[in-house]
Amino acid sequence: FFMERKTQVKINRKKIMLAKLRKSCSCTPGKMKNIIMDFFPVLQWLPKYRCKEYIWGDVMSGLVIGIILVPQAIAYSLLAGLKPIYSLYTSFFANIIYFLMGTSRHVSVGIFSLISLMVGQVVDRELLLAGFDLNDDAPPSLADGSLWNGSQPNTTAFNLTIGGTSVECGKECYAIGIATALTFVAGIYQVLMGIFRLGFVSMYLSESMLDGFATGASLTILTAQVKYLIGIKIPRSQGHGMLVITWINIFQNISQANLCDVITSAICIVVLVTAKELGDRYKHKLKFPLPTELVVIVVATLVSHYGNLNELYASSVSGAIPTGFIPPKVPCFDLMLRVAVDALPLAVISFAFTVSLSEMCAKKYAYTIRANQEMFAVGFCNIIPSFFHSFATSAALAKTLVKTSTGCQTQVSGVISAMVVLMVLLFLAPLFYSLQKCVLACIIIVSLRGALRKFRDVPARYHVNKMDTLVWVITMSASALVSTEIGLLVGIIFSMLCIIVRTQQPRTALLGQIQNTNFYEDDLEYKNLSSVPKVKIFRFEAPLYYANRNYFLKSLYRLTDLDPNLEAARRKKYEKKEQQQLKKGDQTAANGLGMEETIMQLVPKQIDFQAIVVDCSSISFLDTTGVNTLKEILKDYKELNISVLLACCNPSVIDSLKRGGYFGKDFGNMQELLFYSIHNAVQFARGLN
């Protein structure tokens, strides 16, 4: 039977584009209101806020996240190579801005270990290039604004142009200048991606690639914290192979380990891990997570202060953390040019993690998010805070899970968390002066448990999909052993290559008929299938395009045990030999066989079929090479009196075949070449002479 296609109405794309352009350029009060409401989603949901129903959960989750956020912010400053005050600024502004612009009700945006690591690597590189010493124990600046001058001892002075004036800048000033410039550019990239609706870019970051990238970066973070755990002074490694170089330096200087830091680290890790394990085991009985990090920090700070650990045992401490806010500064344009390339992977990773977590929460709690608005929200969470000495932010999985488990209903909880951080900024920050850096390193390392546990999932991952496991291993190895940026690039490229390889060498099969049915399946995969007399049914499980053309032909020739080109050449050879024998008047072939036996050899015994049915159900599209390939096999097999029939083609494939002239002039041969099911094609083939 023949199905008639619907007549497609031609769309005047020019008119549609002009209408959309005219609509987007128009300016009415109603449209302006909609734009503002869309840009600030808080204006839509806050007036509908159910105070009695939501407030308790939001306040509780906000307080818990704020309590967790303070020690993590101070700890992650080690990863970013910056002072703790800047981490607190980052946490404060990110929560406020995402409250105004975010579309997810539950995601926790703020300081994130992976993003802090990427910022820290750029900061360290630029400090070295500027001639600064990366010694972590340089004297801390105070709250009098001295970080914006070169008065710090043992540091190089650097002239930095800020706001059109040249300022002599010390190490800390230059470090935060690099961080804010990097953050500003990353935010600009994210806003531009939102304007041009490039949210689909995150689709190319597969789950396996992101998991591998996070695990590899976690190994790098772990390695960078070991020197704080044991209290040794080693240079901060830069460039490719940082992980290996750092471990070599650690083992070379292991004899210089500070016993006080080692004992403190051992106690803190035992306490933190034990508390985390107990919290995971009894989380269904706990109304909110135990604030273990805060308790450890408070106790460790008191012990360090009253035990004079810094003076007596030379234990490295956090130093002075100023209170209040440093006056805002415009990020330096000259530094933006230096970090423009580094900001691109930072922007992509920050957005990818935020959107994936937002979609996860939205799916779980049955609401929707807008990916492009998330891009704007994260972008402005970077752009605006960069004027207030903050660095790049992203959504964090651990804090998001805590937020949802403690009753969070809306982003009001983010405002509560910001208020907790603000209280620390205004009043409590100086109390952390004596906090040992090894305690912060312990908090960072214990927070990596989730990422490092991915190693346990490798066997299960391998069982599910070997190719995805290979992507995970390659990305993780490149991120850990080379660098995070190279690891991200390698992961994306390798993931795409895997897709290309899968389509270049897909599964191919000959099909047999399921007994007493009209259905056909892979003869090698299923038992009790019947072969169809005089018909070969070939399945190709991928699009047919220029990259897999040769594989398609080789698979077809191998499975049917017939190469039409070789067979045609062999026949021509025998025909030529026969004609030569006839000219000589010898009716007997050179090999002693009679003429009838010679003619029998022209039709090989192995050709036991008269038609090939190509199952096109898995061929999603054809390019020009694909159409020409099908035309080629149609012609080649026709010379051997073998018909080629196509079955189960989708409309786009049929259109490609029509445009390529596969069905002849005016599609006259279409009903003899194209069938809507394999069984229809087989029945037609059986009726052929």
Automatic annotation (TrEMBL):
Cellular location of this protein? Apical cell membrane
Could you say which protein family the record assigns here? Belongs to the SLC26A/SulP transporter (TC 2.A.53) family.
Which keywords, in A-to-Z order, does the entry hold? Cell membrane, Glycoprotein, Membrane, Phosphoprotein, Transmembrane, Transmembrane helix, Transport
Q: Name one GO molecular function term.
A: secondary active sulfate transmembrane transporter activity
Q: Which PROSITE patterns match?
A: SLC26A (PS01130), STAS (PS50801)
Chief place where the protein resides: membrane
Record's InterPro entries?
Answer: S04_transporter_CS, SLC26A/SulP_dom, SLC26A/SulP_fam, STAS_dom, STAS_dom_sf
- According to UniProt, the name of this protein is Sulfate transporter
Catalyzed reactions: oxalate(in) + sulfate(out) = oxalate(out) + sulfate(in); sulfate(out) + 2 chloride(in) = sulfate(in) + 2 chloride(out); oxalate(out) + 2 chloride(in) = oxalate(in) + 2 chloride(out); bromide(in) + chloride(out) = bromide(out) + chloride(in)
Positions of the STAS domain:
525-685
Superkingdom of source: Eukaryota
Under the cellular component aspect of Gene Ontology, which terms does the record hold? apical plasma membrane
Membrane-protein topology: Multi-pass membrane protein
Q: Which spans are transmembrane here?
A: 54-78, 107-123, 174-196, 208-230, 250-274, 335-355, 376-398, 418-448, 469-497
